[in-house]
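Entry type: protein chain
Record version: 2
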Amino acid sequence: MSRNPIYKFMEKILNFCRRNSNRLIFCLFCFAFAYAEFLTLSVRPLDTDIFWHYKLGEEVISTGRVTLENTMSFIPGTEWVPQEWLYEIGLYAIVSSLGALGLFVLYAVNTTMQAVISERFAKPKHIIWFCIAASVVLLFTPRNAWNRPSELSVYLFPLIILLYRKKPKFSHLYFILLGVFTANFHGGCILVMTAIFILMLVCDLFLDICGKKFSGFKYYRAHLVDLLLFLGSTCINPAGVRLLTTIPRISSLDSTKYISEWKSLSNSYYMCVIILAIAISLGFALFRYRFSRREFPVIMVLTALLILSMHSVKGFIIFDMVWLCFGYRYLEEMLDSFFQFSAKPKLKKISLLLFLTIQPAVFTLAYGVAKSSVSDMENKSLEDYANSKVDGEIISCLKENYTPETKILTSYNGGNYLIMNDMKCFVDSRQWPYAKELGESDAVDELFYISTHTADFQSISEFLNEYEFDYIWCNKDLRIEQYLAADPDYEKIMGTEAEKPEKFYEADDDDASESLWIRKEI
């Protein structure tokens, strides 16, 4: 008697699931991870750096050339190094097609791709443990950058390690292409990528010395040629040599001390636990592979990147991608060695059951949040979405009265809203054109000083007299309202009435409001 066709079909489905359980689990994880990343943006502050990236991409597309000038500010003595133009035209193409919703989609796709690519590199034995590790380091890393090239360029670091280790047949060509792409997609990576390459070369030399064995001049010559080709090809950039001479000075910028991604990691408990677990696994790997030519250089690179990440949030964004690709295996080996997870099928079944149970609960809980987030962004251009996040009346007033000669002052991030609306500002969120170490301008330092020393009326007065701003747009990041209220040369035209303060006081951020001031001479 033949069995029911439906029963046969279900049996085939179950057999397929058993044979491909790891793939199914990982696909389910990737779907859940993309969904979670999509939702995180609904509760994060808007990353205004996206605006100037978007407008530079629009400028390249509309003019057909990559500008070497700072076209977004009226500050003299500033120049622009176009080291991200390739990224910017891609961002412009996506967001102009999908609208503001494209920012959410791009972020979810990017971070999910990081998990997918690192899984292919790591080849984990225990897919569930890998999913947990990827979730922890990718979701809990303080990712100040949404869709900026610093976030999207993390793929370049595992790639240069892979090219060094594999030494493919056409490695010279690959390093040339890598250099060209890096210099035009995110030139800021060149310094760290070069340091990684040199560190691996030094590790090889160290192993040769310890092993009393020399790999030969041909081996080292080939690697040095690769490095020189990589650096030489980075000059195929509109800014050419200016890019290479500028990047080494970035690490010494005093101006960056004010900017979050250049600050040290926060001392939160969960980050301490993550770093401690990773550090222990690297120590375990070093003991196990201390004389392995294949593993020792990678362990040293991961250690160096982990140390770098203690000093920079950006550093940890680089580290977590490289660690997932090359360092997760050491954690897995350590756990197997200590706890023998692979020898406990019951534990694997329990963890699988928990994993499959949690997923529907996450989707159900997050559905309402996702629905409201999507409805807030869909059918909106990036400009409309941006303007919905600030005082629309102030933006409208500035646009109506703006001319190419108008000088507007606002906060460090607020300048990006002006740029989004085709108005030049004092400074925007880029550091390169305004940092005194890279050019002739002290603009970033000057702006941050008056923003953080609101009782220093003398300095504020000298600053405003130097630049003679036509409009000043105050908000919680530019807290000079008290000075302006006492200055007879300025008048508030939007916002609540302010009285001349009899004495200075520090107000809470909750008390800050947006206001627009005008110089009476105009």
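Comment: The radius of gyration is 27 Å.
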